[in-house]
């Protein structure tokens, strides 16, 4: 080979290597829980300190109309993982409860669903989920782990299988208060009144009541009380635990330095994979209640315990950004930051403290499809490819991450199913100025609630509501009497014709349009209805993962620490820490 050709060959191979790196970046997907779009500084907050999230935004693209596919945790995360509306996989509920509340439920992300983790793992990526899963655990036995992250494409899992709940932290109240009232307190009151009435009638000689009835009522009251006390005692250890892969390592979980532990696990995973492409999903427990923060952040913000939690999460984001800089991986890493849905505006503690975040100028919040419930932070940074300092106002979805990362990893999209997400890279790279989503469908659980239409060659963004939640108290910004808004029956108001807004001119959704204010009113609604009809025709019947059979607790699916007996308590985190010292 002539000597002169060697430098050209070296340049060619170097160019090939750089091109391959740019097309197959490391990928870090960061998801907050219940963070409002009005919380980060880069989205307008002037009092919460989020310098690291802001640094991420200034170094990349800020999406200002980024939308969760559902305003609730479980269905939103199912859509995020699969790039598909959750109703397609049965991960949207037809009942009041739209998320899993027990680790020993048999419902979860079906085994035939394909996550982006599966696609990237098949392309040689090392994959990890650190933090919250909330997409189920087992199907038929406690060891089949059919819904577990490791069965959905992740090589490594460290975190919680369910979600952070008030019941997981002593002294923070319960999400079951309404259930306790209906199933425990009211029945006990009825039994008590009945016993007193029978006793009085018996004493007065007006009615002879057999002793068996008294004993039966007392037994029933004792049974209800025993079950209630057992639930209070066992719910926390049975549902609030930390896992590493398939093993329980802390039961019940401790909140001590929990964000720090998640951050260390994420950092160690990155350090283990500096020579191979990796996918890291860092799914924070912040800022879902129960709120928590370490001593370094407690009492430091201007927004109480909620602000402390946000600022601790921001610190964690900064640790990951700093590590990427130290390892010289920043230029070859795509980072995405978002929230699974809007802030939970009804979260107020028993002491009257506001434990929910800010949705900025937008109406509503978590569990409803007003903009405050679905418009979430959306930040992407990839220094080698994406120009810094951009702001994109086009409608995008958290489902878009699936086809985006699949294409970047060189993975073909599945051809045997509909993928509702769209590749974001043409928008991010400036090759397209218009979203690929002409229509987006907003579901309240499994009910089609609203449709968004962004016509080609138009600045208008029409949004039509088929029904809206009944806020209570009337005139408030949420459903405070029920803690979240529900999707059917007396909890909603149906609209015929649908309630129509132009989001581009009325993002606060305060002024519904009429035939008098919008000449094309009926024409717009006709196009939207036709799109909704076409969409619903693409929905096959699938098993309902939230059926009562799938949703309820099953003792044979319950996970406990090995050798912990009936207590279901252990702390291998503390034991491992002691051994390391």
Automatic annotation (TrEMBL):
Which coenzymes or cofactors are required?
Ca(2+)
Q: Which domain of life is it from?
A: Eukaryota
Cellular component annotations (GO), alphabetically ordered:
endoplasmic reticulum lumen
**Keyword Calcium (UniProt):** yes
Which residue intervals define the domain Sulfatase N-terminal in the entry? 25-411
Q: Which residues cross the membrane?
A: 184-207, 214-235
Q: Which InterPro entries match?
A: Alkaline_phosphatase_core_sf, Sulfatase, Sulfatase_CS, Sulfatase_N
Q: Where is the signal peptide?
A: 1-19
Q: Which UniProt keywords apply?
A: Calcium, Hydrolase, Membrane, Metal-binding, Signal, Transmembrane, Transmembrane helix
UniProt xrefs under Pfam families: Sulfatase, Sulfatase_C
Q: Listed GO molecular functions?
A: arylsulfatase activity; metal ion binding
PANTHER family to which the protein is assigned, alphabetical: ARYLSULFATASE FAMILY MEMBER (PTHR42693), STERYL-SULFATASE (PTHR42693:SF9)
Q: Which family does it belong to?
A: Belongs to the sulfatase family.
Write the protein's name: Steroid sulfatase
Which organism was this protein described from?
A: Mandrillus leucophaeus (Drill)
């Amino acid at each position: 080979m002539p000597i002169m050709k060697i430098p050209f060959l070296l340049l060619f191979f170097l160019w090939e290597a750089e091109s391959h790196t740019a097309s197959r970046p490391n990928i870090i997907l960061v998801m907050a829980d219940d963070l409002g779009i009005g919380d980060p500084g880069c989205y307008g907050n002037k009092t919460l300190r989020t310098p690291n999230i802001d640094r991420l935004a200034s170094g990349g693209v800020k999406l200002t109309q980024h939308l969760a596919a559902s305003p609730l945790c479980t269905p939103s995360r199912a859509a995020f993982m699969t790039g598909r509306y959750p109703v397609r996989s049965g991960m949207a509920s037809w009942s009041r409860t739209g998320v899993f509340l027990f680790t020993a439920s048999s419902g979860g992300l079906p085994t035939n669903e394909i996550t982006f983790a599966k696609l990237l793992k098949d392309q040689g990526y090392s994959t990890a989920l650190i933090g919250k899963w909330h997409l189920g655990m087992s199907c038929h036995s406690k060891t089949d782990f059919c819904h577990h992250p490791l069965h959905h494409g992740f090589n490594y899992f460290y975190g919680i299988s369910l979600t952070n709940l008030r019941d997981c932290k002593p002294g923070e109240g319960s999400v079951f208060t309404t259930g306790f009232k209906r199933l425990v307190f009211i029945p006990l009151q009825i039994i008590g009144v009945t016993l007193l009435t029978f006793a009085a009638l018996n004493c007065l000689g007006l009615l002879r009541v057999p002793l068996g009835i008294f004993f039966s009522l007392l037994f029933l009251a004792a049974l209800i009380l025993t079950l209630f006390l057992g639930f209070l005692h066992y719910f926390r250890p049975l549902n609030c635990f930390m896992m590493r892969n398939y093993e329980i390592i802390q039961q019940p979980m401790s909140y001590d330095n929990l964000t720090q532990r998640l951050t260390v696990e994420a950092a160690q995973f990155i350090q283990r994979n500096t020579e191979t492409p990796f996918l890291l999903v860092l799914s924070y427990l912040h800022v879902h209640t129960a709120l928590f923060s370490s001593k370094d952040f407690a009492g430091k913000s201007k927004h109480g315990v909620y602000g402390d939690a946000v600022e601790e999460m921001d610190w964690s984001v900064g640790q990951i950004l700093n590590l990427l800089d130290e390892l010289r991986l920043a230029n070859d890493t795509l980072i995405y930051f978002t929230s699974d849905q809007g802030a939970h505006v009804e979260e107020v503690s028993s002491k009257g403290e506001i434990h929910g975040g800010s949705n900025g100028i937008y109406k509503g919040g978590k569990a409803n499809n007003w903009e405050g419930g679905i418009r979430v932070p959306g930040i992407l940074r990839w220094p080698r490819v994406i120009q810094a300092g951009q702001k994109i106002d086009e409608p995008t979805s958290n489902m878009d991450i699936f086809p985006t990362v699949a294409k970047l990893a060189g993975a073909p999209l599945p051809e045997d199913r509909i993928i509702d997400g769209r590749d974001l890279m043409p928008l991010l790279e400036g090759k397209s100025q218009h979203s690929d989503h002409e229509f987006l469908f907003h579901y309240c659980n499994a009910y089609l609630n609203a449709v968004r239409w962004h016509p080609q060659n138009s600045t208008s963004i029409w949004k039509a509501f088929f029904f809206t939640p009944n806020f209570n108290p009337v005139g408030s910004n949420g459903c405070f009497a029920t803690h979240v808004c529900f999707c059917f029956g007396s909890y909603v108001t149906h609209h015929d014709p649908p309630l129509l807004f132009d989001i581009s001119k009325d993002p606060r959704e305060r002024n519904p349009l009429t035939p008098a204010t919008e000449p094309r009113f009926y024409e717009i609604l006709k196009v939207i209805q036709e799109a909704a009809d076409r969409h619903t025709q693409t929905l096959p019947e699938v098993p309902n993962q939230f059926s009562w059979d799938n949703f309820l607790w099953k003792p044979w699916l319950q996970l406990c620490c090995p050798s912990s007996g009936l207590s279901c308590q252990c702390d291998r985190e503390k034991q491992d820490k002691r051994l390391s010292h």
